[in-house]
Amino acid sequence: MSDTLQQQIKSLAKKYGSIFVDIRHHLHAHPELSYQEFETSAFIQKKLTEYNIPFEVKATTGVVALIRGKNPGKRVVALRADMDALPIQELNDISYKSTKPGIMHACGHDVHTSCLLGAAKILQELKDEWEGTVKLIFQPGEERNPGGASILIKEGVLENPAPQSIYALHVHPTLPTGKLSFRGGMVMASADEIYITIKAKGGHAAAPHLTADTILIASHLIIALQQVVSRNNNPFNPSVLSITSFQGGNATNVIPSEVKLMGTFRAMNEQWRFDAHTIIKRIATELVESMGATIDIHIDVGYPFVLNDEKLCAAARKKAETFVGEKNVEETELRMGAEDFAYYSHKIPGCFFRLGTMNPAKGTFTGVHTPTFNIDEDAIEIGMSMMALFGATNAE
Predict the structure, then answer these.
(1) What pLDDT digit, counting tens, does each position of 218-276 carry?
(2) pLDDT of residue 394 exceeding 80
(3) Rounded Cα–Cα distance for residues 123 and 79 (Å)
(4) Which CATH class is domain 190-300?
(5) Which ranges of the chain does DSSP label H, i.e. alpha helix?
(6) Which residues on adjacent β-strands are paired with residue 191?
(7) SS3 content of the chain, % helix, strand, coil (to 5)
(8) Distance CA 89, CA 110 (A)
(9) pLDDT score of 7 more than 80
(10) Calpha distance 144→222 (Å, rounded)
């Protein structure tokens, strides 16, 4: 890696850092839910036009841009940022608080988009200093099945030109600002959604013998499903099954005719993942029918596990150590959360890394997907630097 190029990237990130903090404020104040990112997409398109970067729109709201350096055919690297928000009411008392009731950038996608826009400006300004082509992917719908990544891939985002590798960052609220973390191999879990409806004829609560008690049956089923992981899975194979919603009944004296359950299943082994689906369906069907009710069960297959390419991540980590100092680079822990970056990582070598955003002195330490999530915005300069660096330099 050229020391001169590294210093140029650092210098421009410092110069433009405050601009992209302001951009983050704009995005944070105007969040949009998955597949509804119309204002966000238009804003990104406007900025890319200002930077003289050509782009096209894919998957309705996705934006895919190309920056060509010297010898553009020599290598192609993709940089990805997601841009959707969550259905959460923001509780932060900040000047750039969400202006949309019940919608909030509670997972940092406003940060990811700001960092990629910052990297785009840097790469465009330095395009005569690096070789190859950088493909910028501003992706919709990361938070919701089927995942915007899967849609973009179907629409050819990994073709014409085809990238040899792809990078993405994610805010990390338990990692101090100034630090980065990397992990090769499996790093995040697959995620599937479970939907169960239990039905019987219902009846009077004072005469349970005249019907099947859907509330009782659902309660037994929730407990029984815990056996899927505890008694069928290898203890050394990370896996989680959680029932997260129980909906049924609205009166004290009525046994409802229907109860609905929802939940999630996470795994880090594809064979076990789909074996578990069969076990879940078998346990649920046999238990419910044996207690006199009927069942509808659907498992919505979601994102696969995130697979970081070992060689690519090792090289990225070395670059990061040179850029921010070895003491500021750590190993990312295994997480049972999911990310649709997984779809890219199963197609081409990928590196999904973490950007530290925690600073208790500034009150930025609460977790993602909470109404008080926020970041130490000093992290934005680091994030845009790293994305620019990975775009401009070779994997090895």
Answers:
(1) 999 999 999 999 999 999 999 999 999 999 999 999 999 999 999 999 999 999 999 99
(2) no
(3) 11
(4) alpha beta
(5) 3-29, 38-50, 109-125, 148-154, 214-225, 227-230, 270-290, 310-324, 341-345, 378-392
(6) 266
(7) 35, 25, 35
(8) 16
(9) yes
(10) 24
| DSSP per residue, 46-68 | HHHHHTT--EEEETTTEEEEEEE
**Cβ neighbours of 330 (radius 10 Å):** 17
Fold of 3-187+306-392: Aminopeptidase (3.40.630)
Catalytically annotated residues? 303, 377
Q: What would the DSSP string read from start to end of 230-267?
A: HTTS-TTS-EEEEEEEEE---STTEE-SEEEEEEEEEE
What type of residue sits at position 165? S
Q: What angle, 0 to 180 degrees and rounded to 10, lies between the N-to-C axes of helices 3-29 and 38-50?
A: 140
Show me where the domains of the chain are located: 3-187+306-392, 190-300
Give yes or no for residue 327 having a pLDDT over 60: yes
Q: Report the distance separating Cα 237 and Cα 218, nearest Å.
A: 28
The type of residue at 260 is K
Indicate yes or no: pTM above 0.85: yes
